[in-house]
Design goal:
This protein is an alpha+beta fold. The protein has a single domain, classed as 60s Ribosomal Protein L30, Chain: A (2-Layer Sandwich). It is built from 2 helices and 9 strands; from the N terminus they run ββββββαβαββ. The strands form 2 sheets. It has a 7-stranded mixed beta sheet with strand order 1-2-3-4-9-7-8, covered by helices on one side. Strand 1 and strand 2 form a beta hairpin. Helix 1 packs parallel to helix 2. The chain is globular. 30% of the residues are buried.
Length: 136
Amino acid sequence: MSTTEGKKIIHTDKAPGAIGPYSQAVRTEQMVYTAGQIGLDPATMEIVSGGVEAETRQVLNNLKRVLEAANSGLNYVVKTTVFLRDMADFPKMNAVYAEFFSENPPARSTVAVAGLPKGVAVEIEAVALVSPDRGD
C-alpha cells in the first residue's frame, strides 16, 4: 500500500492485478473506493467459466479480498454499481449477489452496458467504509 497526501493505494495479490493504469482500490481515512472487478481468477488471470453466476461469485470474492487489504470488508460496503452485458442476466446475478449481501445490503445501481473488459458478463465496483477497528 502506498500513500499520497491522504489517499492510500491498495494492492493485494489475493485479487487480480490491474489490467490497465488504475489501482485495485484507493482508501482515504474513512472510505474505500474499489475499481470494478471482473470474474478473473487471481491465480491464472483467466475468466472463470460457468456463466454469469460463476463470474458474479468470483467478482464478489475479488472485491472481498481487495476490501480486506484496505482494512474494510463486504459488511462495510455502502454502495455498489453492477454493470451487466445483458440485463436478462439480472436474476442470476442477483441471486449470487444476495448470498454475499444477505443482511443490510448496500445501496446498488445496476446498468446494462454495451461491452465489458475481456467480454465478461458482469463487473462490480464498491464504495465502503474503512473498518473502525482497522489495524493500520
